[in-house]
């Protein structure tokens, strides 16, 4: 894995937005996989700023969702569909038709999961998948002990994740117990996987994912299997990496034009 240590969240956002912009310059119809939660917001802001500044044209871009709560009513402001439309699709000036996601309100959830997994492949596959990381090492909502070969399916959130996400709701009781998430095997099919981690609360998860053994207990460690995985961590999230200095030196020696 390539590990890039940046001073802060804004720098991480800028670096990843530039990678997305470079991708869209060479492949205008690229399919960008987006995550929700707080971490990726600086990426979306930086990419929108590039669009407004005329540095990149995104009108052909397609956006796909990583995961979704099950059971929130359609249009709920915290459904991930609403969040992605609000934070990504609208600021980039894209039409809703450029966006695909799983149906969290489906009557037949397993069928909706399988249909979404198929739709990603039929769309040509994800070109760049942006991920955050849970304090328990989850990616998407693949909680610890998820199969490393899993496909899009329904999962039950851990109490830790429900507590972590309670800040988006009026109370923890409103946080759904179930989600649809791209599986780890699904995520690993993206051509480039970029995980952004910011803040001290992610430091243990980052160290285990990057330097720990490959383990279903730390789902993000599955990215060790990906031929092009980039971990972007701010100083706080990188603070427990044993090889931090090595990662800094390696990235500093990389030609600037190469990006991530
Ligand atoms: C969200 C997602 C989750 C989050 C993770 C971190 O779509 O897939 O894996 O990325 O829970 O959330 P934040 O960024 O809010 O700390």
Automatic annotation (TrEMBL):
Protein keywords: Allosteric enzyme, Carbohydrate metabolism, Hydrolase
Name the pathway it acts in.
Answer: Amino-sugar metabolism; N-acetylneuraminate degradation; D-fructose 6-phosphate from N-acetylneuraminate: step 5/5
Q: Which residues form the active site?
A: 67, 136, 138, 143
Cellular component, GO annotation? cytoplasm
Give the record's GO biological process terms. Answer: carbohydrate metabolic process; glucosamine catabolic process; N-acetylglucosamine catabolic process; N-acetylneuraminate catabolic process
Function noted in UniProt: Catalyzes the reversible isomerization-deamination of glucosamine 6-phosphate (GlcN6P) to form fructose 6-phosphate (Fru6P) and ammonium ion.
Please report which protein family the annotation says this sequence is part of: Belongs to the glucosamine/galactosamine-6-phosphate isomerase family. NagB subfamily.
Q: What is this protein called?
A: Glucosamine-6-phosphate deaminase
Gene that encodes it? nagB
């Amino acid at each position: 894995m390539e590990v890039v240590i940046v001073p802060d969240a804004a720098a991480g956002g800028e670096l990843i937005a530039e990678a997305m912009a470079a991708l869209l310059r060479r492949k205008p119809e690229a399919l960008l996989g987006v995550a929700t939660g707080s971490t990726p917001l600086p990426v979306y802001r930086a990419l929108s700023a590039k669009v407004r500044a005329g540095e990149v044209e995104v009108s052909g871009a397609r956006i796909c969702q990583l995961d979704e709560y099950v059971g929130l009513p359609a249009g709920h402001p915290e459904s991930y569909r609403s969040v992605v439309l609000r934070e990504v699709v609208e600021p980039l000036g894209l039409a809703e038709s450029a966006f695909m996601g799983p149906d969290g309100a489906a009557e037949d959830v397993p069928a909706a999961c399988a249909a979404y997994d198929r739709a990603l492949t039929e769309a040509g596959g994800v070109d760049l998948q942006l991920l955050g990381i849970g304090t328990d090492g989850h990616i998407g909502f693949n909680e610890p002990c998820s199969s490393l070969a899993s496909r899009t399916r329904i999962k039950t959130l851990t109490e830790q994740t429900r507590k972590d996400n309670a800040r988006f709701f009026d109370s923890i009781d409103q946080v759904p117990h179930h989600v649809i998430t791209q599986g780890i095997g699904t995520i690993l099919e993206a051509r480039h996987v970029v995980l952004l981690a910011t803040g001290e609360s992610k430091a243990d998860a980052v160290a285990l994912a990057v330097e720990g053994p490959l383990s279903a207990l730390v789902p993000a460690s599955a990215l060790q299997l990906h031929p092009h995985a980039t971990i972007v961590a701010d100083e706080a999230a990188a603070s427990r990496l044993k090889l931090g200095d090595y990662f800094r030196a390696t990235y500093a020696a990389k030609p600037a034009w190469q990006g991530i």
